[in-house]
Automatic annotation (TrEMBL), chains A, B, C, D:
Job description of the protein: Catalyzes the hydrolysis of 10-formyltetrahydrofolate (formyl-FH4) to formate and tetrahydrofolate (FH4).
Record organism: Agromyces indicus
Name the UniProt record assigns to this protein: Formyltetrahydrofolate deformylase
GO molecular function: formyltetrahydrofolate deformylase activity
One matching Pfam family: Formyl_trans_N
Gene for this chain: purU
InterPro entries: ACT-like_dom_sf, ACT_dom, Formyl-FH4-Hydrolase_C, Formyl_transf_N, Formyl_transf_N_sf, PurU, PurU_ACT
C-alpha cells in the first residue's frame, strides 16, 4: 500500500513526488471538484481517492494520494484557496514518511514485539525513538531491536506524575506524532489524555463495549461468550470509551480457562494494534465526533 | 450432521438403533469407564463421544452417541445403576428425532423464514406444530410452509397476560420441548421465563454483552464499532443475561447507516439462531451454571 | 445500502434525483477533475465516490453517486464531452432501480429461496420476472413468492439446445440485465456464454481455484481441507475460470462427512451469490480483464 | 490447554502426574471401555478425551489426558494388554513436555520470529536446539533468542545433498521429534521426505489446493481471488500434497498489489504454522491416510 520510495519518475524521466492529502470540512456541493482542480493545477495525478459524508455530523472527509513533480510549496499554494474557501482542516504529507512514534509498555511483550518486528521488516511506516515502560521487563527485547528503552517504577501518585512528565518531555524532545499504549497498564491522567488528544492509541483486551475495565478475559469467561476480541481506540479521559479504530475477534469455547483466553487473545491484541498504528501512520484514520472514519 | 435415519443394520443384518446419551454429575474418577461399561453391556458401540469437566462448578458433562441392537428399555436398564451411583442428570434420546418446537414471532420474517426453510430442507431436526405471533404480518410466509399460524395483538397488560397464557397452553397441548423467540419483540414475564427455563432460546441482535436492551444497531452505530453481531442465548428473567449458546459477527465500517447495520445484521441473526436451535435439538447444549457447554 | 427512494428534496424543497455513474477508460491525469466538473455543471453533489487505477491493464475505474435536480438528459449532456474526450465506457443509472434478473435453477432450493426472500424483503434491488429450471422441483417455492416458473427437462443435446433458446428468448422478452445461475446444474454452451458475457453470474460450490469441476465437496473431503467455501463468478466459456466476484469460507474439521460438508457449504453458497447479485445490481462490479473491481 | 506444571497433588496431598495417551487402531466395539478400564486400573482420572471413527479408513482414533499418581511404568503396564488386544498404535507422553524441534529457514523471518517469540513466551511447548538455514540472513534474530544458528549455502546438487545430510545429523544429534520448515525455500529430496515422514511440517503460502508451486501470491493476484490464505501440512514427496493440518484466510480486494498480498499473507503464514506446531506438540494431530485428525 505504501511504497518505501516516495519518489518515482514519469515516462519522460521527470522526478515525481508522492503526496497524501487528508481533509475534513462542512459538507456541501463542489468540494471534490475544487480539490481535484487544485491537484490538476499543481500538475498532479490522483492515484487513490476516498471520501465520506457523515450524516451524523454533517462533515465531509477526504483522503487523496497524488503523484506530481510539484514540491510541497507548489502543492500547498494550489490547495490554499480551496482550504480557505471551505475552511478545511487539511493535512499534506509525503506518502510513506515514517511517523515518529513513542511506545509505552509495561510487562507484556507481545504487542511491543509485534510493533518492533513489523517496523524492522518494513511493514509499519513508523520510527520509534524510544520505548518508555513502568517496568524493566522488556529491556532485552527492545534492546535487540536497537531501540532506546527507559523504565521508571510507578508506585505512587508522585511517581505516576513524574512518569507522565517524562512522557510529555519525550513527546516534545522527539517531536512525537503518535503515542502507542502497547498494553501499558496505567490509566493516563485526564491532563495527559487532553495533551495527547487524537494522537494516542490504546489496545484494550476485549471486544468493546463489552467487558470494559479490568480483567476483561475473566469477565468474558464468567459470561461464557463464544468469541473474544480486542479493540484499538483513541485514548480519551473517558476510560475505554474513546473512538474505536479497529476490532478483531476469535472463536473460543467452554473448555477454555481464563489463562487460555488470555493467551488466545494476545494474538488479536497484537494484530489489532499494529493494524491501527499502520492505518494512522498512513493517514487513513480521521475523527468524526465520537466515531472514526477509516479509509482502508 | 445427524442422518434422519435412526436405524441401520450391522454386517450380519441385525437391526441397529442410534441413541444419544447426555449426562452431567459431580466430577470424579471412573465415570467414563462406568458409562462405557453400561454401553458395552447393552451391546452398544460408541460412535461419537465428548466430555468436559468444569473447573468452575465441579460438574462433569458427557455426550455419547451409541449404535446398538438394544431398544430403549435395555439401554435404560444398563445405564440405571450408573445413573444412580453418580446421581446423574441423564437423558436418553433417539438420534435425529425431531424436537417439538414452538416459534414465537413478531413482524420481522428473516429468522422465521430461515428456520422454516431449513426445517423443510431437512437441515434442522425439529417439527414446528405452531407459530405464535403478536402481529399478523407473517401469516403468508408461515402458511407457505404449511405450518399453523396464530396471532393475537399485545397492546396492554391484559392482552400480554392472555398471550402468555396462550403460549403455555400451546406448550402443553403440543408437548413442546423448545420455544424459540425468532425476533419476538416482547419481554417475557418472569413467570413465563421460569416456566420455560432451559428450553427457551432467544436471538439478540447484538454481540452481547455489548448493546443490551433496545435498538442495539443504533447503539452500535453511535459507538462506531467495527464489527456487529448476534447472540443466541437461553431466556432468563435477567434480561439479555441468559447463558450464551452461539455468537457471530460481521465486519462493518463508518459508512454504514443504522438501517444498513440492521440489514447486514439480519443474516447473522438468522444463522446464529438456526445454529443454536440445531445444536439444542441434537442434544449438544448443556447448562453449566451461567455458562453453556456446547458439544459441537 | 441503497434506499428504495431515488428521489428526495433539498432544503429549499427542490426535487432531487439520485444517480449512479460508473465508468472506465485508459488511465491518465485529470479524469477525476473532468468528471466532477461535469457533475457540478449538472448541479450535482457527489455523495459517494470510489476509484481504482489498475496497474495490470492501465485502466481507470470510477463509480460516483450523485444527487441533483437534473434529469437524465441534463446529466448525460454534461457528461458527454468528458465521455468523448476520454473514450470512456460510461454508464448512468438511477440509484436503487431494480435490475431485471432471470434466475436459472435445477433442484437445489437454497440459493433460489435466499434470492427470492431477500428480493421480497427489499434487501436485493432486483426484479425477477421468471425462474427457469430444468426440473419441476422448485415450482412450489417459486410460486409462493409470486414469481412465474417454467421448467423443461434437459436430457439430450436437442433438449439442451431448446432450453438454451428458451433462455435467450426470455432474456429478450423480459429485457433481462442479469442472468443468475442459482445452482443450475448444466454447463452453458460457449455460444450462450458469449451471448451473456458480463451479465451472467454463477455460484460454484467451492473456494476456487481449488476443486473445480464436479463434486467439489467430495474432493474437499478427500483432501482433508480445514475450510470449505463458495465462489460467485462471471460465467465464461472457460469453465470455473470466469472473473471472481465474491468468495466466502467456513471452518470444518475431520469429523464431517461429505453430506455434512454439502449442508454446511450451502449457507456460504446462498450468501455469496446474493452478495454478488446485490453488488452487481448496485453497479459496484466492474471488469478489469480477468479480474473484477468491486466498489463495496 | 497445556499447563506448565505436569505434576499436581490431589486433596490428600498425593502427587499427581499428567499423561496424554494417543492411539489409533481398527475400529470396533468396546475400545473406549477397555482404555478407560486400564486408566482406572492405573488410578487415573480422565480430564480430557476425544475420539473419532473414520468411515474412510475404518480406523479409530483417541486422545485422552489423565491425571494419576501412577508413574510411566505403571500406566504402560495397565495399557499393555489393551494395546496388544487391539493392535494399537499407542503413544504415552507427559502433558506439556517440550517437543525437541528443529527449525529450517531461509531469508524470511516472520515465521521464525513468531515461533521463537511464542516459545520464549511459554505459548509453544517446544524446545529448539538449532535453527538451520541456507542463508545467513536470520542469524541476528535467532541469536537474540539465544538459539544456536547454522547456515550453509545451497547452490548446487552437491551443497544441497550436504545440507540434507546436516539436517539428518542434527535430527539424530538432538533427538529431534519435529522438523519445521519455516518458509524454508528448498524442496526436500524424496529420501529426506521419507526419513522425516509424519514429523515434518511445512507452511505453504496459499490456501491449498489452490495455487500450488511457486509464487502463489502472484497466481492469486492474477486470478483475482477475494481471500488469500496459508496452509500448514505434513511434508511428503508429493509436493504441496501432504496431509493438511491447518488453514487460514484473510480478505483482500482488487486494489492490492502482489507485494501487498505477500505482506498481508505473512500474518496468516505465521499464525497458521505456529498453530500447527502447537497442536502437534500437544499430540493433537493424528494421521488418517491422506487426511489428519485434529483433536483441538
Amino acid at each position: 500500500m505504501i511504497t518505501d520510495a516516495t519518489e518515482t519518475a514519469d515516462a519522460t524521466g521527470t522526478h515525481l513526488n508522492h503526496w497524501v492529502v487528508t481533509l475534513s470540512c462542512t459538507d456541501g456541493p463542489g468540494i471534490v471538484h475544487a480539490v481535484s482542480g487544485a491537484i490538476v493545477a499543481a500538475r498532479g495525478n490522483i492515484t487513490e481517492s476516498q471520501q465520506f459524508a457523515s450524516h451524523d455530523t454533517g462533515r465531509f472527509f477526504m483522503r487523496v494520494q497524488v503523484e506530481s513533480p510539484a514540491d510541497r510549496a507548489e502543492l500547498e499554494a494550489a490547495l490554499a484557496p480551496v482550504r480557505e474557501r471551505w475552511q478545511m482542516d487539511l493535512h499534506l504529507d509525503e506518502v510513506g514518511r515514517p511517523l515518529r512514534t513513542l511506545v509505552l509498555a509495561s510487562t507484556a511483550g507481545h504487542c511491543v514485539n509485534d510493533l518492533l518486528f513489523r517496523q524492522r521488516a518494513g511493514q509499519l511506516p513508523v520510527e520509534i525513538p524510544l520505548v518508555l515502560s513502568n517496568h524493566g521487563t522488556l529491556r532485552d527485547l527492545v534492546d535487540f531491536y536497537g531501540v532506546p528503552f527507559e523504565s521508571e517504577a510507578v508506585v505512587s501518585p508522585e511517581t505516576k506524575a513524574a512518569f507522565e512528565r517524562r512522557i510529555l518531555d519525550a513527546v516534545e524532545e522527539h517531536d512525537i506524532e503518535l503515542v502507542v499504549l502497547a498494553r501499558y497498564m496505567q490509566i493516563l491522567s485526564p491532563e495527559l489524555c487532553d495533551a495527547l488528544a487524537g494522537r494516542c492509541i490504546n489496545i484494550h483486551h476485549s471486544f468493546l463495549p463489552g467487558f470494559k475495565g479490568a480483567n476483561p478475559y475473566r469477565q468474558a469467561h464468567a459470561r461464557g461468550v463464544k468469541l473474544i476480541g480486542a479493540t484499538a481506540h483513541f485514548v480519551t479521559s473517558d476510560l475505554d470509551e474513546g473512538p474505536i479504530i479497529e476490532q478483531n475477534v476469535v472463536r473460543v469455547d467452554h473448555s477454555r480457562s481464563v489463562a487460555e483466553l488470555v493467551a488466545i487473545g494476545q494474538d488479536e491484541e497484537s494484530r489489532t494494534l499494529s493494524q491501527a498504528v499502520k492505518w494512522f501512520a498512513e493517514r487513513r484514520v480521521l475523527l468524526d465526533g465520537q466515531r472514526t472514519v477509516i479509509f482502508r
